[in-house]
Amino acid sequence: MSPANQSLLFDDLSSRSVQADFSGGHLSSDGGALLLRQIDLGLGITRLLAACFTDRRNQDFVEHSVHSLIAQRIHGLVLGYEDLNDHQLLRLDPLLAVCAGKADPLGLDRVHAQDKGKALASAPTLNRLELGTEKNSRCHKIIACPEQIEQLLLTMGARCLPKHSQEIILDLDAMGHVLHGSQEGRFYNAYYGEYCYLPLYIFAGNIPLWAQLRSADKNAAAGVVEALKKVVQALRQRFPGVRIIVRGDSGFCRPEIMDWCEDNQVFYCLGLARNERLEALLQPAMDSARARFCLNGGVATRIFKEFQYATLKTWRGQRRVVGKAEVTSEGPNPRFIVTNLMEEEFCELEKHRAEPADLYENLYCARGNMENVLKQQVLDLEGDRMSTHFMGSNQLRLWFSTFAYLLLERLRTLTLEGTQLATATAGTIRLRLFKVAAIVRVSVRRVYVQMASSFPMQDLYTQCLTRLKQIRWHSD
Length: 476
Description:
Number of domains: 2
Mean pLDDT: 92
Radius of gyration: 26 Å
Structural class: alpha+beta
Number of helices: 15
Largest sheet: 9 strands, mixed
Helix content: 25-40%
CATH class of the largest domain: Alpha Beta
Number of strands: 19
């Protein structure tokens, strides 16, 4: 008796017997994949990304196009399957096959008998996709063009920003991706206490514009000027006259970055590391903060003071520095930022934004949201899974993860506004909206998906599809 026909007996439930078997047919646990396919068709992310690859295979023998391979990989990441090994079983999933554009989601049209019923590519095939740029063999014939992928991420990110943006804030950050092997370009980083990579990210709000894999033997600011040149140029082409503000912690407070911003009409608001000279300039404000702290019965107190400051050797001139003199129950907590934003840069109604307190509390401190975004990419989309040997293929994995996040972010922004998931993380959206059991029936004329009747987010799911159908997608 085959397993499908064999009845499994469990303990009785009151007067009823409990039985099970494997005759349910084609099922999927990812009914939300259909929403991903819908928004991907509108945005064209996987289609445009596939155009960044050169396919040297003999097309007479190709069953998995580059587009279907990339769609399978990126949609798999969004659905929580970060490892290539996951696709050994996922290749049986009919809904992921629908996302990948397979004409027969059940895989009955496969050429070889051993592949029948497996519509999607295997883990080795996906691995050859990622390693194609690094290996030159008869098995590795799909070559990625890094320059085109880099430009595509920048172009797609710029398209996702509000059409009439008057101001764009670019957040810079670096994150240590720990390595557990002898990967190319690995280096020991004393800050993280591990061998790792140190990728550079640039975001505009929740929108990724830049994801560059770097070795950890350089400081956080390495390559930032070169990246900003490309990012700023792309933004100004799409948004002429836009005010651009670069924001980052003290790791990005480097003379070359500030000099370039000043020479190219770009504003910056950067953290500035403490030193004796800065603390001396802030000392009068710190004394006042201590006095207020005592008078207020130990309530945390902060006073802001601005002044002109220049380093002894590295800066080319005086710059505006805002100091925060703060005293808490744990002691003094002085902090500093440096900026070239002045009151005259804002209209009459916004001049308060140039005041020291607003610059620090409302502009600089808001950069913490980028760290929350990066946590989603790393924790929910496994953006730090850098397990291939070559740095180039690990860069490709970083881009796949970034495009997966962009796809999910667009779904959240365009369809979940005003709902209980409007500010949900990627992991929460996946769990609440995508993980729904579904029966998939395929006939000559249709793919019929029957989702669980007990799914608690039915109304929201329907609303998402309705909103996606109403969007007028543009190709520019």
